[in-house]
Write a structure and sequence with these properties.
Blueprint lengths: L11 H20 L4 H10 L2 H26 L7 H17 L5 H12 L4 H27 L6 H26 L1 H11 L6 H11 L2 H27 L6 H14 L11 H11 L5 H30 L3 H13 L11
Length: 339
């Protein structure tokens, strides 16, 4: 008897349940065996001026990111820096209150809505940012590795990040600098006319000085992200070097890169605890520091993101729905998004 082919589709709820389960299990692991009384004592004895520095520097991270984003988009259209920052904060707010990081598509949607930039180009610019960040993060880890002794599993993760990022960078380079070949390859698949604007604008970006300026700006952007982590470590009177702080930052970034619970609850705390454990920090202290760091980073994002959302005059659920529609829709047709 011949069985007909059946389309097997994984239920959406099972994917959500998997990621929720991982995040919850991670949070349980963070607090397993922790001395809660000692953790409360650490909270009372920490140096709060470092907490203020961590909070202010974290706000500065996203202001700098807004400027870098505008620099990257400049060959296509000059966008106001404050608009880029607003879109970033709305996206961050979405990540804090909704699962699976929907802000990564909401912020390019807002940028496209407020400008003549096609959504596909705005979304691609976000991917380019991630490639820049991955390349610099890998390079920084390689430099740090020369100053800090690390377990093999950590170096393997960093190497994996570097390989994935390099492959993405090569693919991007083929599209940006081999426009004719990209058009030919896409035309062969039937996608040529639909992505013509995307290829043209990416090629325009790659030929611009501001593209390389944005790539260079990604290094200070990464270094600024280390300030909140270093400030919290100092606030807890931990004797870690700048290089060791960089390792904690790399582990933290790896832990928060995948979709998870709103606000990165679970995996972000786990990443910090694992990063600090590499340098002998006990789990109780590390767990308390991870929760305090999460609060210091999350609270300003929620407040600033909520204000940014109010200024858009929109509803977060509606923005999420429209952004998903743009992702699932065919790529822009020639001339789409232009005034």
């Amino acid at each position: 008897m011949q069985l007909g082919a059946r389309n097997f589709k994984i239920p959406r709820w099972s994917v959500a349940a998997l990621f929720y389960g991982i995040s919850i299990a991670s949070l349980v692991w963070v607090f397993r065996g922790v001395d809660l009384d000692a953790m409360r004592q650490d909270f009372r004895s920490m140096h709060w001026r470092w907490l203020v520095l961590a909070m202010l520097s974290d706000i500065g991270v996203y202001a700098f990111q807004g400027w870098r984003w505008g620099l990257l988009l400049r060959p296509v259209e000059r966008v106001p820096v404050w608009r880029s920052i607003q879109a970033i904060y709305v996206g961050l707010f979405a990540n804090e209150v909704l699962p699976f990081r929907p802000g990564e598509v909401i912020r390019p949607y807002l940028q496209a809505r407020w400008s003549a930039i096609p959504f596909s180009v705005a979304l691609s610019s976000v991917i380019i940012e991630r490639i820049f960040d991955g390349l610099w993060l890998t390079a920084l880890f390689a430099i740090t590795y020369a100053h800090v002794s690390l377990p093999r599993r950590v170096t393997d993760l960093a190497v994996g990040l570097g390989v994935v990022t390099l492959l993405a960078a090569v693919s991007l380079g083929v599209v940006m600098f081999g426009k004719r070949h990209a058009h030919a390859a896409l035309s062969a698949t039937g996608w040529g006319p639909r992505v013509k604007v995307l290829v043209e604008d990416l090629h325009l970006m790659g030929r611009s000085f501001s593209f390389y300026a944005a790539a260079a700006a990604s290094l200070p952007y990464l270094l600024i992200q280390a300030i909140p982590v270093y400030a919290m470590i100092r606030g807890y009177d931990l004797d870690l070097t700048v290089w060791q702080t960089m390792v904690v930052l790399v582990v933290f970034r790896l832990g928060t890169a995948i979709p998870q619970l709103p606000g990165n609850v679970g995996l972000s705390q786990t990443a910090i605890v694992i990063g600090l454990a590499l340098f002998g920090v006990d789990k109780t202290t590390a767990a308390g520091l991870s929760m305090m760091t999460w609060g210091v980073i999350t609270a300003p994002l929620v407040v600033a993101g909520f204000v940014a959302l109010l200024l858009t005059g929109g509803n977060l659920g509606e923005l999420h729905r429209r952004a998903k529609e743009h992702v699932s829709a065919p790529m822009v047709a020639p001339g789409a998004g232009r005034r």
